[in-house]
């Protein structure tokens, strides 16, 4: 894929990152990130730890602030304008490595809180929607329990349902399976696969290469704050171009 | 060859020696000769102390009578407390008007019950009553207006004054403390500096000097003839003082909440105030309950310091009573009575906090 195609500024794209830079103090964490994600596209981001993968996707919903370049989400450019930030956050769901469920609320309340308070949806309707999504992630029977009573895999599925209740057009996954016990990884991945099959725009930071192979439209490899290589999964795994990608793949596939 | 277990071991009851009364006594009171000696000695000491107190306070005490002459027993003379009971409870609040205070107590108790107990699920209306309507109502009920005779605050006293001081300070200190704590963690430098400055200044000064400043120095700065009530000044001083402490307690709670909670709330589109109000503060306040109640209890007892600026709270009015020439020599009864009243209030707060902690515990409830 040519550089020009990647930098396509068609406002129809779901997400565009154009020449984005970010610093933590003096430390240049993200360097000249250019990335366009089309609607319905599934992107897997991989790379060694500390390569800036999480930071990049956290910039997309402004959990981190970028200092240079442009981020355009769903046609809205991210600036310091709080209104626009909130508008973007309503459209972009995020799933975290450590779930970040609200421990003082039940599973159902976790799912209905934002729809009720942000979207102003009546409680009964919000609850019906929440139950629908809890059924989709296959845990409707846990609705009245508290997050602390669920297993890690169940908590992460609740977190996914919580995001879906806001009806987002884009979902960001920040290492969703890294904190899970091995036997719970597949239940979360299955949920994500079914989501992908429905055409959700997704950016997934993960080390699950099996997931990348089955689901991704494109795999992005990052190292030291830069996007080193991006390609469709088959090409990426069978015929990596850069030396760093080859080294990374040999390390993680070796251990798999 | 692999060794495989095919049958599940049956579930057995625990050994008898570890359960039941005898098991518990052996385990905890007589597990070794040293433990047995300590148990016996402790029982003896407790018996001595308790029997002494019971015979002084109840068995040899006088309950019936009107004057000092009725104090004939070798124990306590509760006649003293009984005879001055009205003053101890209401100070110099005129007797025919005391129903107003009592009505305030009853309404307050009902409001507290509705807000704090578990029997009422929706807290909206009880909350509005207790935190909005009730304070205004109490102002007119206690002070006067709308056809009620005005009772100057200099006539307020006793337990009534103590409760007014404590509840107003608590009522102001908690929300103000929360705001100060949020301000101290704010990203806006001016707000942060103001809050840090206030908290550090107030915390570095003893309450007595705050009260002195409020009652002696403040009038010097006000224009001639303009002065506001001594009680109001004490209330402002105490409220601000406890707000500074409360702010630090709440800040401790806020710091214990993982950053991911705010991020998750933000990522769902909740703004700062909604995230704080719905996600962060409920959790932060919950883990701070023991310290918050600790501050409340401290504050409740600190109200006795107002005696230094001439307000007659429960302690000072009882203390005054002990110097009455008709009732000399009964200081012990007076102070024991004050201690008992304070204990009842503080212990209730403490028990309520434990109950609340258990009720709100959702972490690992199975």
Give the helices and strands, then pairings.
The complex is a heterodimer of chains A (256) and B (366).
Chain A: H1 3-6, E1 15-24, E2 27-37, E3 42-46, H2 53-60, E4 68-73, E5 76-77, H3 82-91, E6 92-95, H4 107-117, H5 123-136, H6 152-164, E7 170-174, H7 182-197, E8 201-205, H8 209-215, E9 218-223, E10 226-231, H9 233-238, H10 243-255
Parallel strand pairs in A: 3-8, 3-9, 6-7, 7-8
Antiparallel strand pairs in A: 1-2, 1-4, 4-5, 9-10
Chain B: H1 20-28, H2 33-59, H3 79-83, H4 85-90, H5 98-116, H6 124-143, H7 158-184, H8 189-203, H9 207-221, H10 230-255, H11 259-267, H12 272-302, H13 314-322, H14 331-360
Task: Describe this protein's structure.
The complex is a heterodimer of chains A (256) and B (366). By secondary structure, chain A is of the alpha/beta class. Helix content of chain A is 40%, strand content 23%. In chain A, the strands form 2 sheets. A 6-stranded mixed beta sheet of chain A has the order 6-7-8-3-9-10, sandwiched between helices. In chain A, strand 7 (170-174), helix 7 and strand 8 form a beta-alpha-beta unit. Mean pLDDT of chain A is 90; it is low at 1-9. Chain B has 366 residues and is an all-alpha fold. Among the domains of chain B are: 94-150; 157-219 and 230-359, MetI-like (MetI-like fold, Orthogonal Bundle), CATH 1.10.3720. Helix content of chain B is 68%, strand content 0%. Chain B contains 14 helices and no strands. In chain B, helix 9 (207-221) packs across helix 10 (230-255) and helix 13 (314-322) runs antiparallel to helix 14 (331-360).
Structural class of chain A: alpha/beta
| Total helical elements of chain A | 10
Instruction: Enumerate the spans of chain A where pLDDT stays under 50 for 5 or more consecutive residues.
Output: 1-9
Briefly note the structural class of the backbone of chain B.
Answer: mainly alpha
- Major β-sheet of chain A, in short? 6 strands, mixed
Percentage of residues assigned to helices of chain B? 55-70%
CATH architecture of the domain at 157-219 and 230-359 in chain B: Orthogonal Bundle
Number of extended strands of chain B = 0
- General form of chain A: globular
CATH class of the domain at 157-219 and 230-359 in chain B: Mainly Alpha
Helix content of chain A: 25-40%
Number of strands of chain A: 10
Report the order of strands and helices of chain A.
HEEEHEEHEHHHEHEHEEHH
> How is the quaternary structure best described?
heterodimer
Neighbour order of strands in the largest sheet of chain A: 6-7-8-3-9-10
Strand-residue proportion of chain B: under 5%
Count of DSSP-assigned helices of chain B? 14
Query: Overall pLDDT of chain B, averaged?
Result: 87
